[in-house]
Design brief:
Elements (H helix, E strand, L loop, with lengths): L12 H28 L21 H12 L2 H5 L6 H34 L7 H24 L9 H25 L1 H4 L8 H30 L27 H7 L1 H27 L5 H26 L4 H26 L5
Amino acid sequence: MKIQNYSYHPVTKDTLFKGSLITLTVMILLMALIGALTRLTGSGLSIVEWKPLTGVLPPLTFQEWALEFAKYQQSPEYQKVNLGMTLDDFQSIFWLEYVHRLWGRLLAIILLIPTYLTIFKAQHRELWPFLVFLWILGAAQGAMGWLMVKSGLVHDPHVSPYRLALHLLLGFAVFGVSFWMTLKLYKDKLLLARKGFSQKAYSSLTKITFLAILLVVVTACFGAFVAGLKAGFLYNTFPLMGEGFIPYEIFSQSPWWKDILENPVTVQFLHRVLAIITGGFCCWLWIYQRKLEIPIHLSRAYSSVVVLVFLQLTLGILILLLVVPIGIAVLHQGLAFVLFGSLLYTTFLLLNREKR
């Protein structure tokens, strides 16, 4: 009887470094989904204290649950929205916010792995500025998350749309830096061949793609204002808003900048317009790049962007027509991050050509 020998391949430090960054990036994307679900289910204000260290363990006894519930009963959300809520109902929203916060702590633990390998094992020292920046962004994101929650614990049981938008923008930044670091680890495999790729094509595509990224982020930012102002529950029709394309309540407040950010109707209108502009711009970009002599995998990256844009627009329309269904709304936020990541990937390809 022949005995088969199995070779043992130990996990190398480089493999661990790459695996930890990939895991981190995926977990940040999942964090965006968890955050959206927490907000949409009204769970975000269930924990009224911020305990970064001691808040790791949830309530374990009936007495601890009763104490946590008593704290929530003092909040404006309980008194103005959920008056009469039972302990069982409270537990259902508490657990989602708890998982949301616990996930943030897990992200910090995962980030410790590449940080340790860089400092003590000299792994990928060229990435240390990105790691430092990621720690700063992560700390800022955690602090902003608490400031956002705190804004709904004073008088109005709703979080500040401004802080919600900043929280989302920081989420894009954290995801972007982590994803960019991951791409840099595989730079040699992603290099574009110089042959057939002119300097003119490189320069124009890079600038236009950067503009596409900006449009996606600004559109998402207005999406955060739509969420914060509950504007998605207004004018649940498309393409019209009421009897026309432009609702009569638009720009009805003064000053004008305050109307843009605080008038729910104006915010929804601008989000619609920005989404259409972003979608049209990405489609034009796809048509434009097809006329250039660029590598096939770069062209395919632009095709992926267009597919994602159409999916995102479709989800946005469905959210309006179906009056903000939770599942679709969560996917809508998650897909915004995927679209952002696909444009980052395309930009990375443009900025990393073979130098011959």
